[in-house]
Amino acid sequence: MTNMLTDFVGLKMKNPFIIAAGPWNRDGSSTKKGLLAGAGAVITETIVSDAMLDVRPRIAYNGFGAQNIRLYSDIQVEGWEHEMDIAKSAGGIVIASVSAHTPSELAYLASKMEKFGADAIEISVSNPAKEGLEVLASNPDVIFDMTREVVSNVRIPVIVKLSQNSTNISRVAKAVQKAGGSAVSAINSVRCILGVDIEKAEPSLPTYGGYSGVPIRPLGLASVATIAQTSDIPICGVGGIDNFRNAVEYMMLGASAVQVGTAVMIHGFERITEMVEQLEEWCDSHGISDVQEIRGKALKNLKSFDEMKIEPAISISDGRPCREGCNECVRSCVYNAIEKTGNEVKAIGDRCTGCGLCTSLCPIKKLHMKW
Amino acid sequence: MNIRHIAQKAGVSVATVSRVLNHPESVATATKEKIEAIIAQEEYTPNWFARGLNFNKTATIGLMIPHIMNPMHMEIAKGVEDVAQHKDYTTFMCNVEDNVEKEKQYLENLIKRRVDGIVFISSLLGEKDLCIADEQGIPVVMIGENRETLKYPVVRVDCQNAAYEATKHLLEIGHHDIAMLYGKKPEIENRQKIEGYKTALKEAGIAVNDEFIISVENTIEGGYLGGKKYIDMEKRPQAVFATSDLLAFGVIDAMKDNDISVPKEMAVIGFDNIRMSNLIEPKLTTVEKPLHKMGVLGARLLFDMIESKEKEEKQPPKEILLQAKLKIRKSCGHKERIGEMF
Ligand SMILES: Cc1cc2nc3c(=O)[nH]c(=O)nc-3n(C[C@H](O)[C@H](O)[C@H](O)COP(=O)(O)O)c2cc1C
Q1: Cα dihedral: B289, B290, B291, B292 (round 10)
Q2: Is residue A96 located within the same domain as residue A46?
Q3: Which residue range is the domain that position A366 belongs to?
Q4: Total domain count for chain A?
Q5: Domain final residue, candidates A241, A276, A301
Q6: Taking residues A15-36, what's their average pLDDT?
Q7: Ligand 1 mean position, distance from CA A214 (Å)
């Protein structure tokens, strides 16, 4: 049996899955649902000093990713005292997400949430809607001031949620560490317009919002890996986690824990139960005794561009017959290097430049890079 | 569900439940755990009914409002009242009308009525006047600044930086001769706004023209008179930065009466972002002061003090500085729509 216990910033979670901040955690009883579904911890929807009415509509989904212009919890701080009690009554770990415009405003909110029983604080000043083109989290100095002020006013761990909408995410992560923050979460949703209805000339939602779900996973993975390679602050991976494998990807690139948002929104809390079970099974079947062994495993295979050795590899078939009528590799080879005869394909040695595209396109994965 | 029910369920006296809530260390562990379990089961927050035990509370607070006719104060007052109402408190609102004597009188009256705390918006009083509240142990919180900084917990707004940003906005649009029309009150905040304005001008290499800096009453009429003065100047400014929206309304009115087009011939920027600033023509570019939030946070600081009288615990910070943000609309001739949205 794999030990799934995850010690993240001192929080003793029963597994590395955290339910991300969002309306699925809008109050005490919804937060409780995630904990009962088996999550190691939950993060409240972001709480602000002065809650406002939500805009309508505010969430759109196109089958791949979601756009939201949901702007924070609509429950006032006073209300969260009671909600936090309800959330905590399930016995699990509850992290309060807070946002504000100045360090003192943020610190005040955080200290209130600590008083109400939050186990940790997640600072979320990385929301891409409303805050404009430059999210606060893109500025390392601002993040330093905010983090330090919060850290010096609470005793519980402080996590800072970072944005992919910043020029140098690693610099921001370092600012968090220098200010005494316990960890970073990466990433928040990414500024987007989901699409345009070309018949009505109308964007999917009336204003810009945050992109989330499966399509942003590659951005999240790169952010997490970058932070892991440039600092030693604990990382919580967020963005597009849809199944347990995606969680393993984040952990292999350096995350200690992961958060799931859109997948819970679209598929329900059962998705968390599933991921927890399947991760455990996978670890068991791979002889992993402690889930944290996964952490950073893929980093040693992640090279910088300069370190990449140029091997004379070309595409080679493993000899299995092609799928009936398939012509994918031949059609897509920009170097015109693949020839098909009957049920077999072959790359012409001196034309194949080893780009590797055909190996990902082949539906039966019969092509491999070799030399 | 009230304290009596909890006591009944636990088979103890009301006084014992009360002690668990207020001085848990004085109750035997087994009893305490039993009562706490019942409270948790009922998903009740102790504070909800703990208040009922405080016989020496009146469940009222006082709110000093500089001028009830100023819409800005109404929005702050609403913030205070929202929190108070949530706590089941009644708010006595006192209209000071910018009159120190009236404010002193109200303070005495509130103390006589044994309010549990008082919030002051831009108070005219000093520590000497306020000490009668201290003597009675009545908590006091300040919203905004008017006189020199006092020792009380305060919710402030960074007016200097906001004024700097507002002036820079006018400069970026291309205005060079920028006037500043400031209200006599609130004093400290308006002084900060003038500082921010001067800093922005200096950074742009523009000499401050003292003739352009005019003080008037902080009313629409004051704004009108100020606007007239600028119109009559030999060398008119291209833009007016008014320290409140009310002043800006007056300036725009004066321009209209004299067939001067805003923003084509004169840009006008305000401060506060009261609701009406979005309704006048042209829609007013201004600085958004988080008015409702100021009220909400001021009330929270006050209730922190009222509630912590019983409990010894780590106190949250006592000074909250809030940010004011430029709200770009139509009165300064800015074209980029994106700036309007963000
Ligand atoms: C509808 C919606 C609302 C969200 N609200 C918040 C929020 O209140 N605070 C926050 O920090 N992140 C919020 N997020 C961002 C998520 O927490 C998460 O960072 C992001 O969606 C990426 O993860 P995912 O792909 O698993 O959803 C929200 C996301 C969505 C889709």
Answers
A1: 160
A2: yes
A3: 309-370
A4: 2
A5: A301
A6: 96
A7: 13
A20 lines ligand 1 (CB under 6 A): yes
**Taking Cα atoms as reference points, which of B342, B337, B188, B181 lies closest to residue B250?**
B181
Residues of A within an 8 Å Cβ radius of B: 49-50, 76-79, 81-82, 85-86, 89, 101-105, 107-108, 111-112, 115, 130-133, 153, 155, 207
pLDDT, position B29: 83
Residues paired with residue A197 on neighbouring β-strands, in sequence order:
A202
Are B319 and A76 an interchain contact pair (Cβ–Cβ within 8 Å)?
no
Instruction: Give a yes or no: residue A1 inside a domain.
Output: no
Alpha helices, DSSP H, located in A231-304: 244-252, 262-267, 270-285
- Per-residue pLDDT at A258: 98
Residue B80 contacts residue B298 (beta carbons within 8 Å) = yes
Q: Are residues B36 and B124 in the same domain?
A: no
What gap in Å lies between CA B14 and CA B5, rounded to an integer? 9
Q: Is the pLDDT of residue B48 over 60?
A: no
Over residues A35-81, the pLDDT tens digits come to: 999 999 999 999 999 998 888 999 999 999 999 997 799 999 999 99
Q: Which residue of chain B comes nearest to A89, CA vs CA?
A: B40
Output the domain CATH number for residue A338: 3.30.70.20
DSSP label at B271? S
| Atom in ligand 1 nearest the alpha carbon of residue A259 | 26
Query: CATH no. for residue A224?
Result: 3.20.20.70
d(Cα A180, Cα B20) in Å, to the nearest integer? 36
Neighbours of B281 (CB within 10 A): 10
Beta carbons of B290 and A50 less than 8 Å apart? yes
The tokens for A371 are: 């030399």
Residues A346, B312: Cα–Cα separation, whole Å: 79
In a domain, A140, yes or no: yes
Residue A223 tokens read as: 């952010």
Residues B189 and B248 in one domain: yes
Helix (H) or strand (E) holding B189: helix B187-203
**B296 → closest Cβ in A50, A86, A102:** A50
Q: Tell me the one-letter amino acid at A5.
A: L
Is B129 strand, coil or helix?
helix
| Cβ contacts of B183 within 8 Å, gap of 6 or more | B190, B215, B216, B217, B218, B222, B243, B244, B247
Confidence of residue A314 (pLDDT cuts 50, 70, 90): very high
Q: Tokens for A5?
A: 């216990």
What range does the domain containing B311 cover? 60-152+291-323
Higher per-residue pLDDT: B117 or A131: B117
**Atom number, ligand 1, closest to the C-alpha of residue A70:** 3
In chain B, whose CA is at the least distance from the CA of A28?
Answer: B43
ipTM: 0.87
Looking at the fold, whether B176 and B82 belong to one and the same domain comes out as no
